Amino acid sequence: MTGHKPELLEALLITTNPYDYPMISQGEITVKSIDDVEEFIATDTAIDILGFSADEKISIYKLTGAMMHHGNMKFKQKQREQQAESDGTEDKMFYLHI
User: Fold this and answer.
1) Contact by Cβ (8 Å): 8, 59
2) Per the similarity annotation, which family is this (predicted)?
3) At residue 47, does pLDDT exceed 90?
């Protein structure tokens, strides 16, 4: 979400605003002693060092993006049934093709 790799924002269908995702914005958003870009670069580099392929690497990011979108999903109960269905408020997750 740092915007350091804009192509990831586009691929994951996410924004740079953490408040768009309740699952990640319920605590402290900014910590003065942590540089988010530096941490992202370190994580990205670690994935490479561990030997993940390019496809595996993007899948790791897509899984993270899917979880962020999943937190935005709303459900409604079907009338006279025990099942729930999507309320149609968050469809992006299904386009990530994990």
Assistant:
1) no
2) Belongs to the TRAFAC class myosin-kinesin ATPase superfamily. Myosin family.
3) yes
